[in-house]
Amino acid sequence: MRLKFTKMHGLGNDFMVIDGVTQAVELSAELIEQWADRHFGVGFDQLLLVEPPTRPDRDFRYRIFNADGSEVENCGNGARCFARFVLDNQLIQNTTIRVETAGGDLELRVEDNGEVTVDMGRPRTRPDKIPFLADDKAALYDINVLDETLSISAINVGNPHCVTRVDDVLTADVERLGPALEDHERFPQRVNAGFMQIVDRSNIRLRVFERGVGETLACGTGACAAVVAGVLNGWLDHTVSVTLPGGKLTIHWAGEGNILMTGPATRVYEGVIT
Ligand SMILES: N[C@@H](CCC[C@H](N)C(=O)O)C(=O)O
Description:
Elements: E1 3-10, E2 13-19, H1 29-36, E3 46-51, E4 60-66, E5 71-72, H2 76-88, E6 96-101, E7 104-110, E8 116-119, E9 141-145, E10 148-156, E11 160-165, H3 174-182, E12 192-200, E13 203-210, E14 214-216, H4 220-232, E15 239-244, E16 247-252, E17 260-263, E18 266-273
Parallel strand pairs: 2-3, 4-6, 11-12, 13-15
Antiparallel strand pairs: 1-2, 1-18, 3-4, 4-5, 6-7, 7-8, 8-17, 9-10, 10-11, 12-13, 13-14, 15-16, 16-17
The chain binds the ligand N[C@@H](CCC[C@H](N)C(=O)O)C(=O)O.
Protein name: Diaminopimelate epimerase
Subcellular location: Cytoplasm
Enzyme class: isomerase
């Protein structure tokens, strides 16, 4: 096998991007885990696979695999890199790109300054849609984790997220609470765990312990989920600057309808796996 790929990142959340439109690609969870290894492989948080669409109203199908080899429904930073990838590789000429993902349809727009805006669709908050085990829908749920009770919000933005408000994101116990939340019994498909510090009504700081990866330098869907949680709880305005360890994203959500995310997408190098 000889496979061309591009290494990219969105605020340090890094990706191996593979063109499955012009190349035949055969993947397995074992192979992805091996390539994701930062010492013995290429090293990445997610592998992104560009495929032809399965429906006529879409330009591409966008598939996402975590570093542990699991296929997931959505990846916000990946979506921005995906848009730059298909444009730079001339797989499309339009700067507005319509993609299908396992988590729903997305619309991506490459801006004149090179940043990418992604219409991430509507958030879902009904427990069965997250999925999260609870009798009724609520903006905050009490949940027992490692002998303490945390107050969390549960949101699906194509993929499942739980968001915990903390006083100081730098001292938040992400290493201990992250894995316990990721595999919590009330999240039957596991979950991405975000820790959000509210600076003021339009600025937050966020760290995310990602399902299937661990803590990453940035998580686009995590930023969207945190802003939705903040708006639903009355803590945030509708346009919010989210500071992650790897940099900043702008998220807009009007309290209903679709979420918009804007941020950079960076190409690092081209490689070939043989
Ligand atoms: N890094 C991503 C999210 C990737 C998928 C996630 N780990 C999951 O399992 O759902 C982002 O930028 O959104």
